[in-house]
Amino acid sequence: MPRPGLVASVLALAVLLAARIAGATASGDELVRQAQAHEAVHEDDLAVRRYMEALTIDTTNEEAWLGLGALRLRLGEPAEAERVFETALHRVPLMHRALQGRGRARWALGRHAEAEADLDAYVTLVTDADALRELAGWYGADGRAPAQLATWRRLLAMGGDDQAQREARRMVRALVILVDAADPAATPVRPDGIRRAMSAIARRGG
């Protein structure tokens, strides 16, 4: 059997470590709050410094990683933002929002396929209608109508308020026309006619 003195020492050490971890977390969270306050008044250099100080104290502080990455992206530094989100995912693999952030950084860098893969992975893990809408927009910008249609169908199946449902139904109807038009045997009409039909659907709301 373990000696009572040894057990007491181990328990005391565990309590001390827990207290230190709690203190570090609290300090890190306070630095994040300061960083956000600096961001709000456009003191971006100070915000970066506070986020980095928070991560020095606690390398698993999600809000610090996400805040720093988003700030780097807003400052027009997508390569640095990608590095931040990449490191965040290495430190905290279950930080799903870092996938979203890395996707946005990669999109800004022009690496669209990687960006879409990141955002698709994120919306597979997290129910996020805004992110799905963003992903549908990316697919549309890349001319990937079938993937865009599938994404709007996911939004439609998700439900939500009436306005969001109307938007999803309108886009699904329009994209079904466009996707079917990709097969000339199925829809032997001029592409410009299809685009006019899509525009008409969008204008009248479905």
Task: Give the structure's gist in a few sentences.
With 206 residues, the chain is an all-alpha fold. The chain has helices spanning 4-40, 44-57, 62-74, 78-91, 96-108, 112-125, 129-141, 145-158, 162-180, 191-204. The longest helix is centred in the first third of the chain and has 37 residues, at 4-40.
Description:
With 206 residues, the chain is an all-alpha fold. It has 2 domains: 13-126, Tetratricopeptide repeat domain (Serine Threonine Protein Phosphatase 5, Tetratricopeptide repeat), CATH 1.25.40; 131-206. Helices cover 80% and strands 0% of the residues. It has 10 helices and no strands. The chain has helices at 4-40, 44-57, 62-74, 78-91, 96-108, 112-125, 129-141, 145-158, 162-180, 191-204. The longest helix has 37 residues, at 4-40. The protein is elongated and about 55 Å long. Mean pLDDT is 83; it is low at 6-24, 183-191 and 201-206.
Keywords:
elongated; Serine Threonine Protein Phosphatase 5, Tetratricopeptide repeat; disordered C terminus; 206 residues; mainly alpha
